[in-house]
Amino acid sequence: MKVTVLAPAKINLTLDVLGKRDDGYHAIDTIMQTVDLCDRVTVEKGVVDNLTLCISDAALPTDERNTAIKAARAFANATGNSVEDVRITVEKQIPQQAGMAGGSADAAGALWGLNRLFGGPLSAEELCAVGVKVGADVPFCVLGGTARATGIGEVLTPVSPLPPVTVLVIKPDACVSTAAAYAAIDSCTIARRPDNAAMLQALQTADLLAVGKNLYNVFEEAIGLPEPAVIRKAALAHGACGCIMTGSGSAVFALFADAKNAKACQAQLAPAFLNSWLCTPCEGVRFL
């Protein structure tokens, strides 16, 4: 028996870091949206003797360091079900070290797949509680859609969805580790912060121009990569409503009301940026 799901990436419409907590984690305040750039996660039972992960990207670990394996172990601990005869296969599309929660999406896909494979012992809320033990972004990836996340990212409040839009995602060659990004935040003074209230109002009224105006991510200035400014200049010249880096980087996304303009911008930037995708907003994990 096997279950296959599509696990979507996320983008941060806003992202603020409020400071480092006593437990070593950082408190954040962010509004996130899932987009239909997805990893394909297949979970099979009864085909191996030991919990096994097969992944299309040879650069990624397939042992206990991988979030999909961590999610399977956490699911087993929460439900009492053995996962030793489970094989997880991940076909990657979400880029790594991009700020798009690729690893967290895989964990969420594994959790949903295992939950169905074992007869649905956990609710969505319970899957979130299991997921946060794997990573701070996993609960959002479990639920998907549009949400404001606080705490370390695990306290989720659903909000009005992003209006219909084409999302151009561009991944520069530069990679940013999450640890390095937070170190940069800790060593600088944050001069500007996102206006989450204005973003929530823009989403509620489906005002795409206001959404674009209020896109902001404190990591972009703190890290100081040159690529976002280059991409933003081209995107705005092609009619984008707004353009920022997502997460801790290095991927950058631009929002377009007109898909033709998004494609034209993608074509112009293609010689300099080889990795790009045209996406649309979506809900969470989808079963195939």
Q: What structural class results from the helix and strand content?
A: alpha+beta
Counted by DSSP, the helix tally is 10
- Strands, count: 12
Order of helices and strands: EEEHEHHHEEEHHHEHHEEHEE
Biggest beta-sheet profile: 8 strands, mixed
Uncertain runs: none
3D structure, described in words:
The chain has 10 helices and 12 strands. By secondary structure, it is α+β, with helices and mostly antiparallel strands. Helix 1 runs parallel beside helix 2 and helix 9 crosses helix 10.
Question: How do the strands and helices of this protein lay out in sequence?
Answer:
Blueprint: E1 2-20, E2 26-45, E3 52-55, H1 67-79, E4 86-91, H2 102-117, H3 124-131, H4 138-143, E5 146-150, E6 155-158, E7 166-171, H5 178-186, H6 196-204, H7 208-213, E8 216-217, H8 218-223, H9 227-237, E9 242-245, E10 252-256, H10 259-269, E11 275-279, E12 286-287
Parallel strand pairs: 1-8, 3-4
Antiparallel strand pairs: 1-2, 1-12, 2-4, 2-5, 5-6, 7-10, 7-11, 9-10
Helix pairs in contact: 1-2, 9-10
Nutshell version of this structure?
With 288 residues, the protein is α+β, with helices and mostly antiparallel strands. It has 10 helices and 12 strands.
